[in-house]
Specification:
single chain; about 190 residues; alpha+beta; Immunoglobulin-like; 2 domains; five-stranded mixed β-sheet; four-stranded antiparallel β-sheet; 2 helices; about 30% helix; about 35% strand; transmembrane helix; membrane; Immunoprotect_excell_Ig-like
Amino acid sequence: MEEPSDGESGRGARVAVFIGAAIVLVSLCCCAGAVAAVVTWGDDAYRRLTHDRGDTVDVGQAGRDGAFEFTVSRIDCGVDQIGDSFVNQTAVGQFCLAELTIRNVGKRPATFADALQQAYGPEGDRYAPDSAAGILANSEQQLFQNQINPGNLITGVVVYDIPRDSHIAEMELHESEHTAGLRVTT
């Protein structure tokens, strides 16, 4: 058997290095593109993906996400303060109170978390719930982090502190952070 000359083995090594460098370069470009996409479109891309998969209902209609069937009965904005004369909280802007019913239509217990329930203004601004104000608004029932057994139903209020010149145009309700979400339009 004849051994390759030094020129042939050197050429093979150069080709291997070239192919390896090309693979590394393509991988870096893909990673940079993914990072740029997340930075540029992050929430909007996620929101579009979940909206394409989730159901959409109007206020007053029932809709499902995961094991939960949600019904938002009404949304009241313009509230300045929540609580009583002893314990209360004043809004930075205005409080919007979303009154809802949650029924577990699944086969296992599931936990309702107010932090997963997002609201959106008319321009697409996303608002997170104000859990402290929510506790004051739900003095008769603990809505937050409440485990709901199959077949059971709870009612309560999710509170958002939003700018005075805005209102809630849409809500996105989730049973868990891994579900598509239910859109509720006002």
